Amino acid sequence: MQALVAVAITLVGLAVAVEAAFARPFVDAAGRTVEVPERAKRVLAAGPPASVLLYTLAPETMIGWVRAPSPDEAAFLTPKTRGLPAYGRLTGKGNTANVEAVLLMKPDLIIDVGSTAPTYVSLADRVQAQTGIPYILLDGAIDRTGETYAKLGELIGTPERARDLATYAEAMIAEVKGRIDSIPADRRPRVYYARGPRGLETGVTGSINTEILDRGGARNVAESGGASGLTTVSPEQVLAWNPDAIITLDPAFRRGMSTDPLWSTLGAVRAGRVYQTPRLPFGWFDSPPGINRLIGLRWLAGLLHPDLFPEPMDAIARDFYKRFYHVDLDAGQLDTLLKDAEAARP
Question: Do residues 193 and 250 lie in contact, with contact meaning Cβ atoms separated by under 8 Å?
Answer without folding.
Answer: no
